[in-house]
Design goal:
The complex is a heterodimer of chains A (486) and B (580). Chain A contains 19 helices and 15 strands. By secondary structure, chain A is α+β, with helices and mostly antiparallel strands. In chain A, the strands form four sheets. Chain A has a five-stranded antiparallel beta sheet. Chain A has a five-stranded antiparallel beta sheet with strand order 12-11-10-9-15. In chain A, strands 1-2 form a two-stranded antiparallel ribbon. The model of chain A has no long low-confidence stretch (mean pLDDT 86). Chain B is mainly α. In chain B, 63% of the residues lie in helices and 5% in strands. Chain B contains 27 helices and six strands. A five-stranded antiparallel beta sheet of chain B has the order 3-2-1-4-5, covered by helices on one side. The longest helix of chain B is centred in the N-terminal third of the chain and has 29 residues. The relative contact order of chain B is 0.03. Strand 8 of chain A pairs parallel with strand 6 of chain B.
């Protein structure tokens, strides 16, 4: 929802972009199918004709709503009519394929004209699908062929260095709002639970709903806020971070909106039971005794007890109960609470368990004053793959969060300091995100976005690589400065 | 609603007035549609008509006048400062529904799709409890994902913007000291917060993680997608009931048990109310498990679970189950059967009441018989139910079970003033195995003043069979007054005799057929006709021969009876041949 300037305290809902997003995804899928079919069938084959026809229909549908269609490759993303196309799990294959096809020919953009005919589109697709570069300049070779073939209605442009893709101030503002609101709500909810009062689920739901709205529009900035680790406000901050990370990952998995809401609520409330654990146990810096450890483990069941207070059964509550109870049980059920009989973690619990573990490992704690860097945390989590976490889900989680998550401060081998701006969606480039350089080797403030997959043509090697990850508090004296550069 | 201004001086005023009138019409339509949507299913003709009208009228209005903005008051909706809807009845007011949940403005944008406005009105037609802290109008609107309807909501969220600071004024919250056992460290108090220095290892770690993630190929993604899909279709109620059960056993805390059992009860009743018997069965199983002493829960805890199960016997729940039984669909019958069987012996009482409520009682009766065989005492107990319908069901069940030990408990029913109960008890006695005791009881009603009861009694005696039964029936025939009995009663006695004695009784029946008298000949012919009927029931060649011998009897009554009996034998033989 958007804050309403005419009336303070009033927020207006955001018009759903779901239909438009679907249209864009349909275009990418049709393009994927058409290229794939061009490698199997002759141009006049019924299947091939049909797939080109479907592609043309999806192009025309976009023309109807947007009046134009330009597909660009910006860094490692597909951008359609200036909107980044977001691919969930179901779309990942198509997305990666189309992106790789355009990148291999070094195509920067494809523009389609409204007078495009089926025949021209078909010939173009067959040229694209069957193209094998013979020279060092694949784009030049490909575009010449397009021109000489007389294909009308499609304009091909080469790759260009694209500057930082601006996230609107409105989105930044809403992301910040919703992030800090989620911390406030976590504080409110946990405090109420501690004093035995009824938890105001509605308030928490509003925050989660706003969070999902923001994430659906632009999740990168929101995710970057989870790099804020607040030692003193650990539990509240942790609940908010787990919520944002879970919602972001759930979105990647293609979960429907209402399931995302349940996931977000469960994540926000997952540690509500900790309010019942004595502070001397919670804040104990050293190793816990067996009794203390047993008590600590009870936070999951105490969380369930707290959620059960004065609430009617709803799908959301049921899922929150599952998450609260199961988030420490591990995939092999060797975690806690220990239960008899064959049991399996719920899918949403598995997601929250990943987000919970990741955020806990990368945050300094009273018993472990030095936090792990994200790559180290992922290494630890991978060691538990198949035991604590479902292997494929963990891999996708890491690939979504990124080896260097959005918002991470990184040192480059060039001596520059940068902020991870966007994660590379292709697993082989997981260590090569987009980075916003914020300081040159001399420490002078700069602001430009670079792609770590860029290769220095003279050496054939990557122009820059990450050599280390730095804690924001180490670099920024005031975390507000960090927020400003995010 | 306020009346439109009486006079419109300028063209602009006229336009504004026309727009206002159009908005009022739309609100009137929304109000009526909400009522219809509340009362009828979405495939109902009236529902469909209103849905169509909503789409058409909103589209026309928005095309003509552009976006429509409504301000939401407590009981009224306003457009450009004019009241366009008002309803002060709190249960009916659509404005109040929106207002109560913080909605203060609604905007309908040009391009509004029919499904969107129908979806919006569907949300307004939902009953929402004022104390519901969960599902509210805003959540329902949010879930609909509208493209052309916007709503502004009063913020309930606490002041959100709090800048990160390492020196918060609030006391530090409760924190966890260990996320996992492996994580526990022996660290001193925190001095400086920083990342663990792994700069020397970054390349190695990067390679390791990258290699692991790189194996996320197309196939793995497809598997994950299937996993997501399976999860979305998974049975959450079953899973939650397991978790609540586990939580109860882990904590063994009476307060938690009360809450979990309470929620299980809610889930159980909600599942039944929604007709989701498979879910209900799973929850029921957990609740029953919680009543088991072997789990080590305290007596108050198990009692709490028992009370929740006892509540299932409420009439409202039974009526919901009856509605499912009355659907009489094989799959649903099977679900009902599994549900009742999972309820175990505790289902006997409620299911007996349930059988009295349903039109198609086959499934429920089968379950009662199955459960009753193991818990005959509980079945017998239902004979004392104050509801006569339940007593009748119990008698039928006991008859199907046929356990001879229940005979003494039926005596009370034989004395019941209700002829229906008395007759059902007689039928039940007639179905018991090893009938000595049953025969003794039946003797008590063989001379009942009600001829219907008497007939049922001789039929029951015949069903039990055996020498004592034959003896009892023959003694009735030999009574001098037998000839004066009604045709129906005589037929019942001779029919019962045939059933009890079979072929051995043919000579007795033949004797009756042969016996002729001048005095009260018609009465005697009635008895002879009843003997013919009984021979027809036996139906073997010997009986057939006797009937053929009397087919041309001088008495037309006897003639007709013999021919009818022979015809029945032929039909039965044909039917038998057909089956073979």
């Amino acid at each position: 929802m958007n804050e309403d300037s005419s009336q303070p305290g009033l927020r207006e809902s955001i018009s759903s972009q779901a239909a438009l997003a679907q249209q864009r995804l349909k275009f990418i899928t049709s393009l994927y199918v058409a290229i794939k079919n061009s490698r199997v069938f002759e141009l006049d084959n019924y299947v091939a004709v049909q797939s080109v026809r479907n592609l043309l229909a999806s192009i025309r549908a976009i023309f109807e709503s947007d009046g134009a269609l330009t597909l660009k490759v910006v860094h490692n993303y597909l951008v359609l009519n200036d909107t980044r196309v977001k691919a969930d799990l179901a779309m990942m294959n198509c997305y990666s394929f189309v992106l790789a096809e355009l990148q291999r020919i070094k195509v920067g953009s494809l523009s389609f004209a409204d007078h495009l005919e089926e025949e021209d589109l078909g010939r173009f697709i067959y040229m694209l699908g069957g193209f094998e570069a013979q020279t060092q300049d694949p784009f030049q070779e490909f575009s010449s062929r397009v021109v000489t073939s007389g294909v009308d209605g499609i304009v091909v442009e080469p790759e260009t260095k694209v500057e930082e893709e601006e996230i609107s101030e409105d989105v930044r503002e809403r992301s910040r709002d919703v992030y800090f609101q989620s911390i406030s709500v976590a504080r409110e909810v946990l405090t109420r639970a501690q004093t035995g009062r009824t938890v105001n689920f509605r308030q928490a739901k509003r925050v989660v709903q706003n969070m999902i709205d923001v994430a659906m529009e632009e999740d990168y900035f929101l995710m970057s806020l989870t790099s804020i680790k607040n030692y003193d406000e650990y539990t509240f901050n942790h609940c908010a971070n787990v919520c944002v990370i879970s919602v972001g990952f759930g979105q990647k998995l293609g979960l429907p909106k209402l399931t995302l809401e349940a996931l977000g609520m469960g994540a926000l409330l997952h540690d509500v039971g900790k309010t019942f654990i004595p502070l001397e146990v919670l804040n104990k810096p050293g190793k816990l005794s067996d009794d203390e450890w047993n008590l600590m483990q009870r936070h999951t069941t105490m969380g369930v007890k707290s959620l059960l207070k004065n609430h009617v059964a709803s799908d959301m509550l049921l899922r929150a109960i599952l998450i609260t109870f199961e988030h420490h049980q591990r995939l092999d059920m060797t975690g806690y609470p220990k239960v008899d009989g064959k049991r399996e973690q719920n899918f949403l619990s598995k997601i929250v368990a990943l987000a919970d573990c990741y955020d806990a490992l990368t945050t300094p704690r009273i018993y472990r004053r030095v936090a792990m860097k994200p790559p180290e945390a992922f290494r630890i989590m991978l060691k538990d793959s198949g035991k604590a976490f479902e292997p494929e889900l963990l891999k996708l989680f890491i690939s979504t969060i990124g080896l260097y998550p959005i918002g991470s401060l990184v040192k480059l081998d060039s001596g520059e300091m940068g902020l991870v701006y966007s994660v590379n969606q292709q697993p082989q480039y997981i260590d090569r995100p987009l980075v916003k350089v914020i300081a040159d080797p001399s420490g002078k403030l700069v602001m430009n976005v670079i792609d770590l997959t860029d290769i220095d043509e003279s050496t054939g090697k990557y122009e820059r690589s990450i050599v280390d990850c730095v804690t924001p508090s180490e670099y920024f004296e005031d975390l507000n400065d960090y927020l400003d550069v995010l | 609603m306020t009346e439109p201004k009486e006079q419109a001086d300028t063209g602009e005023d006229k336009e504004a007035l026309a727009e206002l009138t159009s908005v009022k019409d739309l609100m009137h339509l929304v109000s009526n549609a909400a009522r219809v949507f509340q009362s009828y299913p979405s495939n109902n003709q009236l529902y469909l008509k209103f849905a169509q009208q909503l789409g058409e009228k909103f589209s026309t209005h928005l095309k003509q006048y552009g976006d429509l903005t409504l301000s939401v008051g407590q009981y009224e909706l306003m457009c450009d400062g004019e009241e366009v809807y008002v309803e002060t009845n709190t249960s009916r007011s659509l404005a109040l529904k929106l207002y109560r949940d913080g909605v203060r403005r609604v905007r309908f944008l040009d391009g509004l799709e029919s499904e969107e406005i129908v979806g919006f009105v569907e949300v307004l037609s939902q009953p929402v409890a004022s104390d519901n802290l969960e599902d509210d109008i805003v959540t329902m609107l949010w879930g609909k994902d509208f493209s052309h309807i916007k709503y502004a909501v009063l913020e309930e969220i606490p002041a959100g913007k709090e800048e990160p600071s390492s020196e918060e004024e609030d006391a530090p919250p409760a924190e966890v000291a260990a996320e996992s056992q492996e994580e526990e460290a022996e660290a001193g108090p925190a001095v400086k917060l920083e990342y663990k220095d792994i700069s020397s290892e970054v390349q190695e770690i990067t390679k390791e993680v990258k290699n692991a993630v790189a194996s996320l190929d197309e196939e793995a993604l497809e598997d994950l997608q299937k996993g997501v899909q399976a999860e979305m279709e998974s049975d959450i109620i079953s899973h939650v009931s397991l978790v609540l059960f586990d939580a109860t056993l882990v904590e063994k805390d009476p307060e938690l048990t009360a809450s979990t059992v309470g929620l299980l009860g809610q889930l159980l009743r909600a599942s039944i109310a929604n007709g989701r018997l498979e879910d209900a069965t799973r929850v029921l199983v957990r609740l029953r498990e919680l009543t088991s002493p072997s789990l080590g829960l305290s007596a108050p805890e198990t009692d709490r679970a028992k009370r929740e199960l006892d509540d299932l016997a409420e009439l409202e729940v039974l009526q919901q189950l009856a509605a499912i039984a009355n659907e009489n669909v094989p799959e649903r019958n099977q679900q009902l059967r599994e549900f009742l069987l999972s309820w175990g012996e505790d289902a006997i009482g409620p299911a007996t009441s349930l059988a009295g409520l349903v039109m198609h009682d086959k499934t429920v009766m089968e379950v009662l018989v199955e459960l009753g065989r193991e818990h005959i005492d509980l079945c017998v107990r239902t004979l004392r139910d104050p509801n006569p319908a339940s007593v009748l069901v119990a008698l039928k069940v006991l008859g199907e079970i046929g356990d001879a030990s229940t005979a003494p408990h039926l005596k009370e029913c034989l004395e019941n003033p209700s002829p229906q109960i008395k007759m059902e008890a007689i039928r039940t006695l007639g179905k018991l195995e090893r009938g000595a005791q049953a025969l003794e009881l039946l003797e008590l009603v063989l001379d009942d003043e009600d001829s219907g009861v008497r007939r049922e009694a001789v039929h029951a005696v015949g069903s039990l069979g055996g020498s004592r039964a034959i003896e009892l029936l023959e003694s009735r025939i030999s009574e001098k007054t037998f000839i004066n009995k009604s045709m129906e009663e005589k037929r019942a006695v001779l029919g019962a005799l045939a059933q009890a004695g079979g072929r051995d009784i043919i000579p007795v029946l033949e004797d009756i057929l042969k016996s002729k008298r001048w005095f009260r000949a018609e009465r005697q012919n009635e008895s002879r006709a009843c003997a013919a009927y009984a021979l027809g029931l036996i139906g073997n060649p010997e009986a057939r021969q006797v009937l053929e011998d009397f087919e041309e009897d001088r008495s037309t009554t006897v003639q007709a009876a013999c021919r009818a009996a022979l015809s029945r034998i032929v039909s039965a033989e044909k039917e038998k041949a057909g089956h073979e």
